[in-house]
Amino acid sequence: MAPNDSAQITEEDREPGAGRRKAARYALPVAVAGVAAATIGLVPALAATGDPDLPKISAQQLIEKIAASETEQLSGSVKITTDLGLPSLAGLGDMAGGALAGGKGGPSGSGASDGSSADPNAKLMELSSGTHTLRVAVDGPDKQRLSIRDTAAEYSLLHNGGEVWAYDSASNEAYHASAPKDGAEGGAAKGGEKDAPKEGLKDVPATPKEFAEQALKAAGDTTSVSVDGTARVAGRDAYQLLIKPKQSGSTVGSIKVAVDAKTGTPLKFTLSPSSGGKAVVDVGFTEVDFAKPAASTFDFTPPKGAKVTQGEGDKSGSPELPKHEDSAKGPKEQGGPKVIGEGWNAVYELNTGAGEGIAGAAGADAAKSGDVPAQAQQFLDALGDKVTGKFGSGTVFKTRLINALMTDDGKVYVGAVTQDALVKAANEAK
Predict the structure, then answer these.
(1) Per-residue pLDDT tens for 305-332?
(2) What is the pLDDT of residues 373-396, one digit of tens each?
(3) Is 25 helix (H, G, I), strand (E, B) or coil?
(4) Residue 91, Cβ density class (10 Å: 0-12 exposed, 13-18 middle, ≥19 buried)
(5) N- to C-terminal Cα distance for the chain?
(6) What is the dihedral of CA 372, 86, 281, 90, to 10 degrees?
(7) What is the structure's pLDDT at 235?
């Protein structure tokens, strides 16, 4: 094999203590690649100069390179295009955001109760469909900034130490909350392995090589992992890691991650559906700079006259559960999630406890009486297909990636599988 510039294992890596300390560092690039591979990723515009001629590298070496990446600072422009095959979600953003943030009609009746246009829960839903241009900046785990640019306005979300700010220039509204305390005070920020249970670290890979070996072993017989050539991503040379299900029945056709040849940082992720057509998600750097961003990038003061909404995060302590709920029980009382199948064909079965189905009789009456917003009803109607089988009858709600079967007796089957695979799983559960 030709020489390659994959990560080298040093004597420091081989020392148990040093290796464990580095395990937390691997989490940042590995999490970027892993979470992207499951849901969303990075896809750039490719340069017209053609694919670069790089030294050959194996899949294991490329995974080692990702795990060994020390990238903690970067900034750049990102273009994200998402096509889940859903109706437009723009009109549902405020409604869903209010519920998630505990606003009017939300679970707590507080928080962003006025439906602030700066509330991240509502604004970031817009990224689930269409094409958007973003500016991003990162300086370690405590400083991040994301800005969404529109034609005549900009929305910014900033995390700086213990504070989170969001600002919508179109409405001159700001949202403020405290960052989760465990993110700043726990884990690697306080010394990582020193405060973690030793048992918990026993099986944590201490070197990039160990991580790569475990990742490939976990892929097993259900997944094909290979290097699929090279590419130019945001003006940088990159290797392409190709991940493909070996099983039939998955809605995922392939996942391609472009990895910066010099730093090992994932720059590009393309998730293509098994049904064909354009990618479900294309998100990517069109420009990237690995220099440390200026400290002022993460500073924010609300402009004069801006309306500021205080978020739930400003309250100290943990939120109280309603007195009739028990945090140790809850979901188990309704039957915890059950996994049917394995690998890419895994389907999760949940029992909602709603004997009359998804919406129940009350929901059906509400729909008839017009209490369900027209746009929400149109959204549901566009997704649902009635199906029957040994399980009984129900409705399959479909996207190009995740499908869910909701039965008339209150069961839910969900996974990144086809409608036929969902029905088969529901039949097998009987």
Answers:
(1) 999 999 865 444 333 433 434 434 444 4
(2) 666 666 666 668 899 999 999 999
(3) helix
(4) middle
(5) 52
(6) -50
(7) 95
Exposed (0-12), middle (13-18) or buried (19+): which is 105, by Cβ within 10 Å? exposed
Instruction: Map residue 106 onto helix, strand or coil.
Output: coil
Residues 6+ apart with CB under 8 A from 372: 363, 366
Q: Which letter, b or e, does each residue of 253-271 get, where b requires 16 or more Cβ atoms within 10 Å of its Cβ?
A: bbbbbbbbbebbbbbbbbb
Residues 157, 136: Cα–Cα separation, whole Å:
10
CA nearest neighbour of 185 among 142, 124, 221: 142
SS3 call for 104: coil
Most confident among 200-214, 275-289, 381-395 (mean pLDDT): 275-289
The pLDDT tens digits of the residues spanning 237-273 come to 999 999 999 989 999 999 999 999 999 999 988 999 9
60, 227 contact by CB (below 8 A): no
Mapped onto helix, strand or coil, the DSSP state of residue 226 is strand
The model's pTM is 0.71
- Give CA–CA dist 193/199, Å, rounded: 11
Q: Are 403 and 387 in contact (CB under 8 A)?
A: no
Could you give the domains of the chain? 11-86+129-309 (2.50.20.10), 330-429 (3.30.310)
Which residue, among 35, 32, 38, 19, has the nearest Cα to 251 in the 3D structure?
38
Measure the CA–CA gap between 117 and 173, rounded to whole angstroms. Answer: 7
By residue count, the chain amounts to: 430
Amino acid 27 reads A
Buried b (16+ CB within 10 A) or exposed e, 204-228: bbbbbbbbbeebeeeeeeebebebb
Tell whether the model's pLDDT for residue 142 goes beyond 50: yes
- φ/ψ of 216, rounded to 5, equals -70, -35
Q: What is the DSSP letter of 183?
A: H
Report pLDDT digits (tens) over 347-376: 999 987 655 544 444 444 444 444 556 666
Q: What is the spatial distance between Cα 187 and Cα 208, in angstroms, rounded to a whole number?
A: 20
Residues 142, 14: Cα–Cα separation, whole Å: 29
Cα–Cα nearest to 24, from 163, 211, 164, 180: 211
